[in-house]
Amino acid sequence: MKKSITPNQIKQNNRSLIYHYIYQNHKVSQQDISYDLRLSRPTVTANLNAMEQEGLICKSGQIDTEYVGRKAAAYSITADYRVSIGVEILKEEVKMIAVDLYGEKLDRTVYEITYEYEESYFKTVCDKILEFKDSIGAADEQLLGIGFAMQALISPDRQTVLYGEILSCTGLSIENFTRYLPYPCAFIHDADSAAVSEMWVSRELTDAFYLSLSRHLGAAIISKGEILTGKHGHNSTIEHIQLDPGGALCYCGRRGCMDTLCSLSALLRGPESPDEFFEGVRRKEPSFLERWDGFLDNLAQAVNLLHLIYDTDFILGGYLAQYLREEDLEALYERIRKLTPFAEAQDFLRISKMPRHNVTIGAALPFVQTFLNEVAGQ
Ligand SMILES: [Zn+2]
């Protein structure tokens, strides 16, 4: 059936095209927009005036334009027209970050608050979030929403914790927070959140297995630019694949899960920091090298198993990513090569492009993405 387009839809479409053109090109002239989008000057002028009045875009100095050969007024989007906050709930800490419409960090803070399934805890965290929101000078209407990254599996509607053994927060509802926060709020599984950040900085990334190698192991499957959640919400919970039935006890109650072999908790000893550990490795101290080699053996086994199931790129992310070097990828690849029946180039192994603040930023980004999808259709 042929659908007719109404004049109003064309208008909204033009507005959307212009906004996104400015967003992607950062700083453009009226002439650039008109030529590149093949829109008439009056149409562009009318849209620019309207969006400037609303505050969506702003004039930002002058710019050379190839079409008229002289300087013209430049337009940019107002990056902080809307902001979003990402919060990461951890056992001993609460991390917060505010981002603008480009997903750029506006500010960040960390509070030492120990998690408890208690009303006083939720109230304290929400008070801190409101304090943080005020400290960045965000008005109520500016705040798109607050995303809570959890070390837990989340229901598809992002309102409930389905499985949260690490924090003992199974069954937790987002209402525990929204009761004190008059903004849209949603949970996100922390590994999904890290994968969202990765996709944000690598726009060409459409398919990958993202491994979050942090204190605990997590993963997310990216397929056709989306994160697969699965029928019951436990897709890619590779951390509980049992590799060593007689191994160490996992927090899930079973033994020898991938989490007990391929996480930072498995790698580090007691209060040792990753900085201390990798200093030892880079100094080539035998005791550190031995542990690192053992870890890479386990990681190779895990990646090989997953790669046999899903032949795609593997992104090594999480907190460990910032310590990884090219030589580590080669060492890992060499081990996988000996395990796999398929001779493949090393190109499927990659280090995360966003090893810092990825979980908190990824929790904030879905609100930004929704805004960008809808913005110019207003
Ligand atoms: Zn387990």
**What percent of residues adopt helix (DSSP H or I)?**
25-40%
Q: Radius of gyration, rounded?
A: 24 Å
Find the structural class using helix and strand composition: alpha/beta
Look at the structure and give the CATH class of the largest domain.
Answer: Alpha Beta
* Spans where pLDDT lies below 50 across 5 or more residues: none
Distance between the termini: 27 Å
What is the succession of H and E elements?
Answer: HEHHEEEEEHEEEHEHEEEHHHEHEH
Mean pLDDT: 93
- List bound small molecules: zinc ion
Integer tally of domains = 3
Q: Which architecture of the largest domain would the CATH scheme give at its second level?
A: 2-Layer Sandwich
Strand order of the largest sheet: 6-5-4-7-10
Tell me the β content.
Answer: 15-25%
CATH superfamily of the largest domain: ATPase, nucleotide binding domain
Can you walk me through this structure?
It is a single chain. The chain has helices at 7-25, 30-37, 41-54, 119-135, 175-178, 190-201, 264-267, 274-282, 286-309, 326-339, 358-374; strands at residues 28-29, 57-64, 71-77, 83-89, 94-99, 105-111, 143-150, 153-154, 161-163, 185-189, 208-213, 217-223, 226-227, 314-317, 349-351. With 378 residues, the chain is an alpha/beta fold. The protein has three domains: 7-77, Arc Repressor Mutant, subunit A; 83-195, 2-Layer Sandwich (Nucleotidyltransferase, domain 5); 205-351, Nucleotidyltransferase, domain 5 (2-Layer Sandwich). Strands 6-5-4-7-10 form a five-stranded mixed sheet. The protein has a five-stranded mixed sheet with strand order 13-12-11-14-15, with helices on both faces. A hairpin with a 6-residue loop joins strand 2 (57-64) and strand 3. Helix 1 (7-25) crosses helix 3, helix 2 packs across helix 3 (41-54) and helix 8 (274-282) crosses helix 9 (286-309). The protein is globular and about 75 Å long. The two termini are 27 Å apart. The model has no long low-confidence stretch (mean pLDDT 93). The structure holds zinc ion.
